[in-house]
Amino acid sequence: MTDRLKGKVAIITGGVAGIGLGIAECYVREGAKVVLTANHNVTAGEQAVAQFGADNALFIQQDVSKEEDWQKVIAGTLEKFKKLDILVNNAGIGGAGVAIEDESLADWQRTVDVNLTGNFLGMKAAIKAMKDTNEATGSIINVSSVAGLMGLPLAPDYSATKGGTRLLTRAAATSLARRGINIRVNSVHPGWIDTAIVPEAAKPQILPTIPAGHMGEPKDIGEICVYLGSDESKYAIGSEFTVDGGVRA
């Protein structure tokens, strides 16, 4: 199927590699214009624009934890594409990967700043842009994790931010709906997805825990984000979509 997102403009943070790029590929295939952001991976951003074409894509370097960077991204989006229909809050970091008593405050705060505060700032900026340019309609998709549904033993910071994103999604979704504002907010909870973030050495231990018998692909998250960005999901408000090969079944 094509054109499910025809005429729509989407911002995808962390959109130049891994899950973010998988989402972008699905979005462009379905007719969307995409604004892709990343903090450090500028080369991949330029390559993504070349892959999709300058008429369909724009790359903007961004630190999602900085409000001024969000203002820059919104301004660049509106300058090129004139409106905003979809925000996919995908950018995130894995955290320190240590027991809670061994984690430094600085590491904790960095994970919170990127994974949770970044989502808050993105939602705040996107809602204002959708009100100004899109008749207060749109879709916000927060990429959380199965760690937002269960605590991971050596990821207290990551688990806390992904759980926080889950409830931030619900709070914003109900607030907008009860005020009659047609901007939907939902969360997506990936399980193990085969990206560069997952060490090869860890895969033999991971695979037996997945009922499907294999890791997911970035496009598996992209396809659910197509649904949530499209008008097909108009009655999905504050919902959680788990895509994990059966891990949480």
From TrEMBL:
Protein transport listed as a keyword: no
Any one GO MF annotation of this record: oxidoreductase activity, acting on the CH-OH group of donors, NAD or NADP as acceptor
PROSITE patterns in UniProt: ADH_SHORT
UniProt key word Oxidoreductase: yes
Keywords: Oxidoreductase
GO terms under biological process: bile acid metabolic process
Entry-linked SUPFAM superfamilies: NAD(P)-binding Rossmann-fold domains (SSF51735)
Domain of life: Bacteria
Family matches, as Gene3D superfamilies: NAD(P)-binding Rossmann-like Domain (3.40.50.720)
Family label: Belongs to the short-chain dehydrogenases/reductases (SDR) family.
PANTHER family: 3-OXOACYL-[ACYL-CARRIER-PROTEIN] REDUCTASE (PTHR42760:SF133), SHORT-CHAIN DEHYDROGENASES/REDUCTASES FAMILY MEMBER (PTHR42760)
Name under which the protein is recorded: 3-oxoacyl-ACP reductase
